[in-house]
Specification:
single chain, 2 domains, 4-stranded antiparallel beta sheet, 3-stranded mixed beta sheet
Amino acid sequence: MLYLPRIQRVALFCFVFIFPVSAVMTAQTNRSSSANTKSQANTAPVVAIPGAATINGTVFDSLGDIIPGSEVILDDLTSKQTQSTLAADSGFFQFQNLKPGDTYHITVKASGFDNWQSDDLKPDTGQFVTLPDVKLKLAVSEQFITVHADTTQIATEQVDIAEHQRVLGIIPNFYVVYDAENAVPLTAKLKFKLAYRVSIDPATFVAMGLLAGVNQAADTPNFPQGMRGFGQRFGVSMTDEVTDIIIGGAFLPVLLHQDPRYFYQGTGSNASRARHAIFAPFICRGDNGKKQINFSSMGGDLLSTAISLAYYPKTNNPYNFVIVGFSISTAERIASTLTQEFILPRFTSRGKHKE
């Protein structure tokens, strides 16, 4: 779950029209009478209702073309009666002699189109209700396609995003994953790429130079003062950084199939987040997605410290040197992960997913 380079530890979306009532309505009623024979055949004579209401309209498709022959169904929700008609060649339909005050509902059906439903209608005495926007939409059959993207491509894009993460726009913060739920394992090539990018980043050289200056002022390690001593301190600081990154951030994660990155939690209680950060140097995510003992991070610190014996001033107790160095690195990692979890996200610029 974690490899954080030393540099990161240094920097903390109706119109309504009224249909003509007199002669035009009568003419269109006559044109639609032949279409109404289905509903009017074999029925008892219609008894005129005093003050009867009328509901009419014209059926169109979504492009504004008429749809003749559409089935129009009128449900009287009050009397629980239903009648139907077919739209005329002009797309016009009409229901007459309706009891005012009842509640009506219109459904329009046509082959190849989704059904159209009206709002509930409650016409007053003698009212002519013309329905606007009776527009049927083409029926669309939904198809769901599951696309399985190549994990290597996803991982490559995620690394490209990570390489744009910088604290205050300057310090590389490449080893932190802010979208842990969708993260995929890194290939061996990508693990080494991340380590290489951090190692050669200009901010790394600047940070190691600053660290050498601090060590020079503290006269540690035991090198002489002056430019020669500064150069030696810069050299050992840079070598520490590179060996730490390459071994703990690439070589061991490839060998042990572990993910060297820190997976930002960001949710839950502060205590839960703190536990997540504190245990990160000891528990990591394997390439199989399961939690594992973080041999990569701890092993990287141990090996890096042991290698440093070859270029640091000689010590009478090399074992003590390695143990102290490992303990200091572990404490730095815990402080760094806590900082990553609670502080650095607000100061870190993020890369964006490619469309």
